[in-house]
Amino acid sequence: MMRATSTNRMVTSRNPRSGWARAGAVGAICAGGAFLASAGALALGARVMARLPLVPSQSIRQRPDIPVRAVHADRVHLDETPETARGGYLSLRQQGGAVHWRLGPVSGRPTPTTVSRPVIGRDTDLDLEVGRASSNGFFWAGSPRTAHGLPLEEVEVASPVGPMPAWLVRSPDPAGTAGETSRTWAILVHGHGATRGEALRAIPLLHALGITTLTITYRNDTGASDSADRMHHLGVAEWEDAEAAIEHALAAGAQRLVLMGWSMGGGIVLRTSVLSAHREQIAALVLDSPAVDWRDILIYHATALKAPAPMKKLALWMMSSPAGARLVRLHEPIALDEMRPEFYARTLAHRTLLLHAMDDTTVPPGPSRRLADLRPDLVDFVPFPGASHTREWNRDPQRWERTVAAHLAEVLELGVDVDTLPLPVRAPGAPAQEGSIGLRL
């Protein structure tokens, strides 16, 4: 008994520090694991955030997110949302474009939670149905021929990564002989996640002004050639495709150029204008809700997602550094510092009309205003209150077209009396063309 008791005492009388050491070791392991897990989550979140704007994808605006509550011959009732209740014009698509209806401004509120909009045009034979529809921010569908009845040539632009399909709409030269094509061309560039159809709101006006239009695609677009990494570079690389379009236009007889772009396309246009080998042939820029400052855009969206500050910094590092670029599968980093108002203020050399939607929650208007403040000698900033991203035309097509026409008439010395032009050139409620379709091409 004494031996057993002595043994028990020996066991219980061990140095208590060893227990603390074991507990400390376990705690350190747990803390280290928690740290590694936290760091891993931070890195994973940053990588997802960095890749979101780089992966080519169709616009979220194509998703059927507008509930249609009632369909009448002359009007449609929709759930009231910021977009359906917004002033201006709206078009709806169903069944991938098999249904495409154009609607006028809000005309009433049948119930406390719905709005009524008049039907002003139908581009397809099928009826709109009660259910969900998607909003076509481009308003028009199809091609310049099916939407507007304009003569269209499908051409290919030879870019550094391969052929890029484009729409060519020739306009007669007002100052030339009969049948002569205009020597002033406009290169039209769509935005991130969009298609060439984004330019359908501008093509009739440019055609009426005597400007030939070349509406391009760029790398990683559907139907266009892919880049080596199959990733968007936010304009850093895509400007080369716009430059190829310039060379195509010059080879076809163009003598002076207008560059026009929407959203990321506006950023591509800006970058092209300062890097092009043909800057002397560029006469004017027209930018619609352009991506002037990608760092600002990325931080804005990360903040909206409530991302912590370290995650934002890590995501920007992944996009803009050689080592970080490999983590998001970019073949080269994004030169974010070269896509800011301060950079463009130093390098811009062309008269620029900059229209920006003031309710833009995709590309905040602040950097556009800052660029105009830095270069008031070159940049005319025109805010559009009440318009959402790239929907200035939809909000007020007459004002949009008059503003653009006045800018081009002055800079290009077109000799056009803008005040007498019947605008918009193609009325939102114009009858559908024969063979009209509802597809976004």
Automatic annotation (TrEMBL):
The answer on whether this UniProt entry bears the keyword Ribosomal protein reads no
Q: Does the keyword Hydrolase apply?
A: yes
Cite the InterPro entries for this sequence: AB_hydrolase_fold, DNA-binding_regulatory, Peptidase_S9_cat
MF GO annotations: hydrolase activity
Signal peptide region: none
The alphabetical list of record keywords is: Hydrolase
Q: Where in this chain does the record put each Peptidase S9 prolyl oligopeptidase catalytic domain?
A: 207-413
Superkingdom, taxonomy of origin: Bacteria
Q: Name one Pfam family in it.
A: Peptidase_S9
Coiled coil, from the record:
none
First-level EC class: hydrolase
Enzyme Commission number: 3.4.-.-
Q: What is this protein called?
A: Alpha/beta hydrolase family protein
